[in-house]
Amino acid sequence: MTTFAQISDCHLFATDTGKHFDALVYPQLISVLQQIKCQPEIEFIIFTGDLSQDHSAQSYQWFNQAFVDTGITCPVYYLAGNHDEPKLFSRYLTHSVFEPNKTIEVGRWQLQLLDSKSETPAGVLSDTQLDRIASSNKTKFQFLLMHHHPIDVGYFIDRHGLKNQEQLWLELAELPHVKAISCGHVHRAMSLSIPDGHCHPLKLFSCPATSITFGMHDSELIAQYDQIGYRRFTLYSDGNLTSSTHYIEAITS
């Protein structure tokens, strides 16, 4: 049995007092990490993108500082979101907890961190990333994590979702050892339905943001503050898994 936490969409600024739609995002990240630290059964953390809101180098330094300030000691894996600059991760995430590996081996499971960042806010899984999925170890249960959502969620963020969804789902139809996918980007915790006609059971999740919640409006971004937090997963050796969402109180002024 392995338990880990997923965090996402911090949207930090060059100062620790920066606000994203009135939310004080650095203190909220600290609150989330403090909750995680109080659960010693959590073996590692996976961050699924959108570290920065203002694209500043200092925002990456504040993300690094958050793990210093909270005393987190478990490994932290990460991938880039559409707001992020991948090269700044390696430059500024210098704390010893940060792990650059994009494949995580845990017992009978293999977790793959996929790069969906493109030249636009929308996402694309390149041929290289799709090949990683296709050639993944078929003797292990696979869990895929990415920033962009691989299926529409029914509100404005869909115009910035994964553009080659159909290609991904055609690939997955032939890969029954892929048991779960979880993403960030949608700023809301959801358990989603896989596309019609998909030929094997697969669980599909999204992660709440540590910054703000997106209102489910069909055409515009409406900020909410009621479901800010993180997701927790437990993986079992028989291929099953459980997940729960955990929330903090928003810090606004």
Automatic annotation (TrEMBL):
Record domain Calcineurin-like phosphoesterase: where: 3-188
SUPFAM superfamilies, alphabetized: Metallo-dependent phosphatases (SSF56300)
Encoding gene (name): cpdA
Protein name per Swiss-Prot or TrEMBL: 3',5'-cyclic adenosine monophosphate phosphodiesterase CpdA
Alphabetized InterPro entries for the sequence: Calcineurin-like_PHP (IPR004843), CNP_phosphodiesterase-III (IPR050884), Metallo-depent_PP-like (IPR029052)
Similarity-based family: Belongs to the cyclic nucleotide phosphodiesterase class-III family.
One Pfam short name: Metallophos
Keywords, alphabetical: Hydrolase, Iron, Metal-binding
Top-level taxon in the UniProt lineage: Bacteria
